[in-house]
Design brief:
Elements (H helix, E strand, L loop, with lengths): L4 H5 L6 E7 L1 H4 L9 E6 L15 E3 L5 E5 H9 L3 H6 L7 E4 L1 H8 L7 H21 L7 H29 L5
Parallel strand pairs: 2-4
Antiparallel strand pairs: 1-2, 1-5, 3-4
Helix pairs in contact: 6-7
């Protein structure tokens, strides 16, 4: 099997189960100078993992604007609450370039990846971006509205995370007789 970037980019490649536009285009904040970043997921036949030379975990173009993760690597990154891969499960429909039923199974169970660690990482990332934007625009980064908004979003996200954990426990607990 071929794992070159160009081979994965072919529309007919059956190993690619997902490809989508990520970053500022997905957030709707792109301008005329913005480049388009894409991320994708490809599958690897199980026998490839027992060869002397294992398949690549990630394949990218030279500028890393377009990256494909093996399904194994994608799941490893999701387990680590990686923001880039987490974003891929929550893309709006107009940013999805290719999606297969196999990837749909991951999207259907994406709540399993929402952990307290994921919430903390995403809120921290959002806060840093907000502060950076405020600094560029000449606003005070210590403004009370920004801090209040962060606290409100943080408490809402933490509550959602607790609800998800409760649902997980209920779904995996043995029925009592």
């Amino acid at each position: 099997m071929e794992y070159r970037f160009e081979a994965l980019e072919e529309r007919t490649n059956p190993s690619v189960i997902f490809r989508g536009i990520v970053g500022i285009h997905a957030y709707g904040t792109a301008n005329a100078d913005s480049d388009v970043d894409t991320r994708g997921v490809f599958t690897v036949p199980p026998m490839e993992y027992v060869r002397l030379v294992p398949p690549p975990k990630q394949v990218s173009d030279p500028r890393n604007d377009h990256t494909y993760y093996s399904l194994l690597r994608f799941c490893e990154l999701m387990a680590e609450s990686n923001p880039t891969t987490m974003e891929m499960l929550y893309l709006p429909d107009d940013c999805i370039l290719r999606s297969t039923p196999a990837y749909g199974l991951l999207v259907a169970r994406r709540d399993l990846f929402v952990t307290q660690k994921a919430v903390d990482i995403h809120l921290g990332r959002s806060l840093r971006l907000s502060w950076r934007s405020a600094a560029v625009n000449g606003s005070s980064t210590e403004s009370s509205p920004m801090r209040r908004r962060y606290r409100r979003v943080s408490s809402t996200a933490r509550a959602a995370c607790r609800r998800t954990a409760t649902r997980r426990r209920q779904a995996t607990s043995w029925p009592r007789s």
